[in-house]
Amino acid sequence: xxxxxELPPEGQAVTALCVVYHGAWAAKEGKLGVYAALAxxxxxxGGAAVLLPDAALHGERQGDTPPGLNARExxxxxxxxxxxxxxxxxxxxxxxxxxxxxxxxxPDFRSAPLWLVGSSMGGYVxxxxxxxxxxxxxxxxxxxxxxxxxxxxxPEVRGPHLRAFLDTYRPVTHVAELPVTPLLLASGExxxxxxxxxxxxxxxxxxxxxxxxAGADAGLVERTFAGVGHYTSVQxxxxxxxFLEGGRPPA
Length: 251
What we know:
Elements: E1 3-6, E2 14-21, H1 36-40, E3 47-53, H2 71-101, E4 114-119, H3 121-132, E5 142-146, H4 160-169, H5 171-174, E6 183-188, H6 200-213, E7 220-225, H7 234-245
Parallel strand pairs: 2-3, 2-4, 4-5, 5-6, 6-7
Antiparallel strand pairs: 1-3
Helix pairs in contact: 2-3
């Protein structure tokens, strides 16, 4: 699983782990530096380790693509595989980097907050992982799902295993089963890929109802950005940084 890792300055502890998932037909390099401010952290107070993996079938992993997938099946096979391998990725991160970086990496990283950020296809991934990772021993503290959807209506996806994945994890269907840990749902109001009314609005409504029923209304942050299309704007990036920094442990 090829990854890039942005770390706090030498000698400063890692106080959180942020895993950033890119969109379809993209690669980890496209997210390099986008959330590096998290690694810079606070003076003397440590910072987050920002992990940027190539999603399955993307970047350096395109050669793993099975034959016969249409474009939408390619996206969802990538999501399915990326979700399935996430616990192994986190275990490997611990084994590899705690040995290399020593105490600065916090060998007890499971006790540090785990943050997830995903854009577009990556938003599918992180919405699923906030449900599945706790069962694997990795509770998720905060999730930012950007320029994405929880509707998951995919008529072109025909493979039985992919249909089963969609039906099992579709957020708007299963939102009542999801944790109510803090979630940022952010979209561009001019997004042609995920028009606001068809995707952000029903997804936000489903999450809003679930958080309200659990008495955790403050845990859901909904943002839309005027004039923003299918990309992470500077304002959206700032909203993500502020949202995640709100969960930073005290220095």
